[in-house]
Amino acid sequence: MDLDRGQFQFFEPPEHEIKHINNLFRSNYGSCTPDPELISKSLDSLALTEREIQRTSDDIHRLESQLACLKAEKRGLEWRAARYRSLLAPIRSLPPKIITLIFESFCSEAATFTETLWSPPAQLSHVCSGWRELVRGTPILWSSIHIEDAVLYHPSEKVISMLTTHIHLSRQTPLNLSISMSGPGAVDHEDTARLILQMLFGESRRWREVHLDLHEFFYDDLDDLRGNLPLLQVLYINDWDNVPDLHAFEIAENLRGVYLSYAAADLGLPWSQITEFSIGSASASEALEGLSMATEAREVTLYRTNLDYLPDEFPIVHNLNSLSIIVDRWDPDFQQFFDWLTLPNLTSLSITGAEESPPRAFTDIYDDTFPSFIARSSCTITSLSLIDLPLTDSAAIVLLSALPSHFPNNPRAKCRNPSFPKHHPHQRLLQLAHYRTPQRALRPTFSLYATPTSTFSRPLRPCDVSC
């Protein structure tokens, strides 16, 4: 009899034996009429059958053991075949310069010294001796380090060894560092934290981009950095305002980008060199004070500024070209900045809702603050972005209508649906795109095309309005 579509077979006894057994069951044999001869024959048949069962089981175990051995042998052969294929893999024919570029892409994220110790170049060096030699001979792969005080809960010997390897193998390559030693781990393991900082501070002449978030009792250790930062280009300092008169970074001839949390006053920096300036989580007064200090900054970001403390003197005149204002739900009214600033050289303006807490509503969006700012500054904005803001179409148009260089007063200007993209090759294009709207459904994109007879002070770049 076949079972499961013939995959398994049940072998029946011979027909005469089946009939004999069935006749025995149909007989009147019972406990009250014992048949000694029948009992004896049944016992013999049972013993014989059980021996056959045992023999069959033994054969099954033997065959299963052979099958397991064959499977293990197959796995070993597959392992060998995979290794031989690897020896013939195309990547082994790539020149070292190409492989190095691939390694640089893999190691684009810094080695992390946090709750987890992770070093991309160390992982690559474990693949084979050729990769190990190439990785250890490429200093740039070891030159980015991100370290937090959570690493102090690892055995100090392991951390110091891994950090020493990165410092040694990076040789003289400029370093990109992110150092956060402001949490409880830095307090609980101050000695180890100071040792790590001393190792990194000792390489200050190689610093190129540095993020610092230090507990206040570490700031005295920064004094030795003064005058030893010849390569420093970008500096991030978080929560430093509890430390008065910080002048460690005052001499840094290549410093161009500064990104601060909280105040900028009393921070010694080569302010006349700074071309990119960002300040966040500060009061409006502190943010504008920092802007006044960065007189040569051309790209400025004001991030989640607190509007509780307003500046005493305004408007501030500045020659920046690009301004980004990032607002959150607690202080969403970005238009107040246009009362405080006069920016005659402004060409790019971006107003964005903070990703983690975007604003939900605005007040006074329809007042004349922005038009007054444009008139007072006499600037020509050629790039405008309004992103993740709860603006209605009408509110966006109020802002856009203050930009006369974008919208010429010409009756031949036309508003068309983008599904009809044909227009004169010399027309300027302004796109208003609603990418997402928190409080209502998506709205269609539309485009404004100005005819060639319209007059513009300069060609327009695409202008995105994302609500």
TrEMBL record:
Sections of the chain in a coiled coil: 46-80
Domain of life: Eukaryota
Keywords: Coiled coil
Lineage, uppermost ranks: Eukaryota, Fungi, Dikarya, Basidiomycota, Agaricomycotina
Organism, as annotated: Tetrapyrgos nigripes
Name of this protein: F-box domain-containing protein
Entry-linked InterPro entries: LRR_dom_sf
Gene3D superfamilies: Ribonuclease Inhibitor
